[in-house]
Amino acid sequence: MRLLPTLLCAAALTLSAPAETFSVGKGAFLLNGEPFIVKAAEVHYPRIPEPYWEHRIRMCKALGMNTLCLYVFWNFHEREPGVFDFSGNADVAKFCRLAQKHGLYVIVRPGPYVCAEWEMGGLPWWLLQKEDIRLRTNDPHYLACVGRFLKRLGQELAPLQLARGGNIIMVQVENEYGAYATDKTHVANIRDLVRAAGFTDVPLFQCDWSSTFQRNGLDDLLWTINFGTGADIEAQFRPLKAARPDSPLMCSEFWSGWFDHWGRRHETRDADAMVRGIRDMLDRGISFSLYMTHGGTTFGWWGGANNPAYSAMCSSYDYDAPISEAGHVTPKFHKLRALLQQHATAPLPEPPAPPPVITVPPFALDRAVSLFDTLPAPKPTETIRPMEAFNQGWGTILYATQLPRAAKKGETLAIDEVHDWAQVFADGKLLARLDRRKKEFAFALPADLPAGTKLDILVEAMGRVNFGSSIHDRKGITKQVRLGDDVLTSWQVFNLPPEHAFAAAKAAKPGAHPSGPAYWVGAFDLAAAGDTFLDLRDWGKGMVWVNGHPLGRFWEIGPQQTLYLPGCWLREGRNEVIVLDLKGPRSPTLQGLGQPILDQLRGNLSDTHRKPGQALDLSGERPIAEADLRAGGGWQTLTFPTPASGRYLCLEIRATQAPGPAAIAELDLLDPDGKPLPREDWRALYADSEETRSANATADKVYDLQESTFWQTTPEAKPPHALVIDLGAERRATGLCLLPRAEKGAPGQPKTLRVYLKDSPFRL
Ligand code: GLA
Ligand code: CA
Description:
Blueprint lengths: L3 H13 L5 E3 L4 E3 L2 E3 L2 E5 L9 H11 L3 E5 L2 H4 L14 H10 L3 E5 L30 H18 L10 E5 L11 H13 L7 E5 L4 H4 L5 E7 L4 H11 L6 E6 L15 H13 L3 E8 L10 E2 L4 E2 L18 H12 L17 E5 L2 E4 L8 E3 L14 E7 L9 E8 L1 E6 L2 E7 L6 E3 L9 E7 L15 E8 L2 E2 L3 E6 L3 H5 L4 E2 L7 E9 L5 E4 L5 E6 L2 E7 L6 E4 L7 E9 L7 E5 L31 E4 L7 E21 L6 E2 L1 E5 L12 E5 L23 E2 L8 E19 L10 E9 L6
Helix pairs in contact: 5-6, 9-10
């Protein structure tokens, strides 16, 4: 009792301490009235195990950052409509308070859409249960769900605004909306919902690309620009400076590296180029957030995907960031820290030691059960419906029926569409595997099948698209299954969700060795816990859980071959492992390595679009347009002399502005109204040359909606360079828009161009 007056006194002192202020001044941010450069580290709390949060925050501090920048992942918090979770790894307020404890400010980016290579860009899958929902629009249902979430988030984070004694200095409205649509009313609606949630005491801002920020820029919001390592900083800010001469400048996402897709080369970005970019910004007084400073891991089923050219994300989100996936310093870290030390007023703290790393000797997963022997109760459905219709969000789904008639060898079985990876079985025998990444939606039956044959189609959802209009990405089989001209009906559906409780309830039998899809269970003993990297090189494709924690997806094709297993999820003594392998392991053993393997592609390594022996023959073809492009960056428009129609587009780069390879970052065809035609159905059929040894510069990068990715030819290949695209259907076009590579001094700018468009395929 005698302590009470002292405590009251301390509380009174805290309350009377003047709150800090942060505002947008003329040409500069102002912290407590003084010019302030934001040096922010982007980190994602669900991508770091909660016990490690403080370690990673201290790493950012030691790097020389003064702020943390974080997305809020709506679908991580509201897994069922109206049921919220802000505990444990979802306790975002705790994350902010830990940052404050270490003297860091926080920028919050509550979406509702965040992109971030995260399942559905952070939107909850159950939104798709409304068949006609229009995400990221003024659809009243969508806005109502957004409002409900933001309001709940406000209860967690609004009290942490700077003026209220917390450390939140800015809040973002939507995310790169200009890359999605032009609709200022929508952005204004989101802004109002953010304010209504209580974020009234901090500047609100929008982030977009240099080429798109004016589409949706609201007068009362701060505008910031996103771009990556290598970018021409002056050029990136030029349009913003012209539009808003008095605005402080900020790169709200400066990409330190890039993310990895299954089946594609591991991405890296040069450390010196990254540091040069940050030096350049600091020299000009430009604020920045380094996306990612620490990428971490996309645990469980939270990885997203890109489309067109559907391509799912790896589990590692290492991002080639300065702080590695497991929280270690890297050469990039040291180089950046040296620069940021020069811009700090006091010596930077030393980085904390990383959590200890251990190796785990090989151990067997000695119990197993075939997935087909442990199915849940089926749900009957006359026609095919996607996973969402059965109230399943993620994981695997099985559709079973019997053939209503005999089928002939060579007849086509078509699945419209597989989202995202399917195995088709006839009476338990594997007939085919179909991969959405390759637009494999049909196959010829390898044998005659009698009427009554049991047909099982096992579909794995690989992560919903997180960017572009394809975010309306329903899983399982989206429409129908056809045998020849007959639509198959009378299905039984089995839901196989990825939550641990479901996997753990499987009765795996000792000594069983099923072939095909199966759950495998085992354990290993530890004298002391530590971080390790589970080696999945002997396994096919699936998901791993350790001590109840879903570690993430694995896939033998790589480039990621190990899964990060944080020591804080391990314990002295016995540790339980479950693996769902949809293909089946070569050997059902695992081991923990001391190093990750993130760059080992296997299988068919060539993702290029030119088969051996192919050469495009344009003799006798007539171009619909031929033009010289100007030198210099930015989008260029080429109007065709007369509108043209066709399904197959060929672009021939006859000469480049400077000697060397040719490159294109983005390509749009314009419809009769001058608007870009949709590109979701585009498919690269041919490119004479693609740089895949040192980069992921394949032809499909010209329509992947990302301005920072590009098609580039190899240095040895000689012009002319040709690219052939199947537009998916006949289209009428009046011109094209083309974006060269945007980085400073980047090669490949096209000079002379010929365009062909016709109904029939080109001769290859
Ligand atoms: C954009 C998005 C981010 C992320 C990066 C790429 O800038 O805003 O969420 O997707 O691209 O890593
Ligand atoms: Ca691109």
